[in-house]
User: What shape does this take?
Amino acid sequence: MTALPLSREAFEARLRQIGAERYHDRHPFHHRLHGGDCTPDEVRAWVVNRYYYQSRIPMKDAAFMSRVEDPALRRAWRSRIEDHDGADGREGGIARWLKLAEAVGLDPAYVASARGVMPATRFAVDAYVRFVREKTLLEAVASSLTELFAPRIHAERIEGLLRHYAFADDISMSYFRKRLDEAPKDVAFGLAWVLDHADTAEKQDAAAAALEFKTDVLWAQLDALWHGYVAPARIPPGAWRPGEGLRAQAA
Assistant: This one.
């Protein structure tokens, strides 16, 4: 007997429950960061590695759009690339992240080179880009729904960093503040699209699995940071090491 799909409301609740149980705001590294317990070098390691994820988001979205035949969907999705890359003299999220890098004492050119990215970070992020490139459009869109849970973590991050770290100011926090404005639009569109198109139990299962995969990608990045830079620190070969890639004033 073929299973019946959940109602629209029940399926949305299922997706939101994934975030409640698996989103990376539950990771101990975030508690450490937001609570002011990270050392300057732990913050720098986070900035270096998270940049790789930020820089691949527009590449992931471009890969998605290359497979979309519906012009309306492409138009709706295009703003995501512009939000990160910038457009028409408007600064994007990648440039704002490099301002954070500079604020924590890193050379933005070094961070942008991605030379210090941990292998586990690179593997996790590249797997996400490949997932979006190769899976169904429904799974690709569903994997973006971690944005449902992002505004809360951005708000907590802004509050925690401003309270505990001297580098935190309006400029260095501009990436997170801007995402508070940008993310709700993306969330509303992506969620509605998934709820509209996951019209069978099989499709709902695939969409939920895609969202779980994305939470795994985010969690794996923080696991790598914890094992590489917290305690006991085991920095892998080729990854950023304290003292590398600093601005001249911070060296």
